[in-house]
Design a protein that fits this description.
about 60% helix, about 300 residues, 2 domains, about 10% strand
Length: about 300
């Protein structure tokens, strides 16, 4: 009886291993040493939150896949930086950190939050939208935090990365991008909207502004109203006013909103390219499910043979 139990256990474990190995494609994450140094664009820049302890900083370094710090430029983002770049509170505590890798022209912006459980308010898409507003282009950005934080200080860290690398970002646009992030996270929190709805709203308003090129505040107000209706979203009068104020400021700064539309197309294209690289076609998961069903039936038949 004992041998039979061991035989059943080993067979079941083997079957589970086969299912896990086939049903889960592996996504390798390259470290900086794997990719080598891009001599044209420079090494990645890593900006750590000032409040991190040394052990937390080491943990963050691992989270951002930095095997060799000599292959990166490392800086610290401080409360003084918040005051410098976005007129924020110089006494702010800074935990969230970011790694910025500059990419070839036309790449667009990719953002990955490595520690999703610890960045509690800001999403990948919120970062992308804010960075586009600030004027950041063609970069891969990774954000991480060793403790639970909202994620706002990482945006200031990204601004500092561009400053120290000699690429000037307009301060008004940086301040506006920070305001956009505040509005986005407030809507998701106070209005009870999910993150996806907030991102969709902000992006659709930008796309409408790109298409319609509003000349007045009233035009912006009409666009906000139309997009809220289109997405079937309800906002308080106060938050609706905040949206109008935000996008009216963007209109005054003459931001090229068409880049948002291009970025969305780029993201769609990159997802498809990644699936092609992995050999995953549209029917991949259907094939996996059919395989698991067939394997399960084989296991059932095997057990029946043992006990019959």
């Amino acid at each position: 009886m004992k041998k039979r139990f061991l035989k059943i256990s080993l067979s079941f474990a083997l079957a589970l291993g086969m299912i896990s190995g086939i049903a889960t494609p592996a996504f390798a994450d390259e470290s900086d040493s794997d990719k080598g140094i891009n001599e044209k664009l420079g090494v990645p820049i890593v900006v750590y939150g000032e409040t991190l302890s040394e052990s937390q900083k080491d943990e963050t370094r691992k989270l951002l896949n930095i095997d060799d710090p000599e292959n990166t430029e490392e800086f610290t983002v401080t409360g003084q930086d918040i005051a410098k770049y976005i007129d924020g509170d110089p006494n702010s505590r800074m935990f969230s950190s970011a790694k910025i890798t500059r990419e070839e022209k036309g790449h667009g912006i990719d953002v990955e939050i490595v520690t999703k459980d610890n960045i509690t308010q800001v999403t990948n898409e919120m970062y992308v939208n804010a960075l586009l507003t600030a004027g950041v282009e063609d970069a891969t950005v990774k954000v991480a935090s060793a403790v639970k934080v909202s994620g706002h200080s990482a945006l200031t860290g990204i601004y500092k990365a561009y400053d120290v690398s000699g690429e000037d970002l307009d301060k008004e646009r940086m301040e506006l991008a920070n305001e956009e992030l505040d509005v986005s996270t407030d809507l998701a929190d106070k209005e009870g909207m999910d993150d996806e709805s907030v991102t969709a709203l902000m992006t659709e308003i930008k796309k409408a502004i790109a298409d319609q090129n509003p000349a007045t505040r009233e035009d912006v107000e009409e666009i906000v109203k139309e997009q809220l209706s289109k997405l079937n979203l309800e906002l308080s009068d106060q938050d609706r006013e905040r949206l109008v104020n935000l996008f009216d400021k963007m209109r005054d700064l003459d931001i090229d909103f068409s880049k948002v539309k291009t970025q969305l197309k780029d993201l769609t294209s990159k997802v498809k390219d990644k699936m092609d690289e992995l050999g995953i076609d549209e029917g991949f998961w259907e094939k996996v499910i059919n395989f698991i069903k067939a394997l399960f039936n084989a296991i059932v038949d095997f057990f029946r043979g043992i006990f019959s």
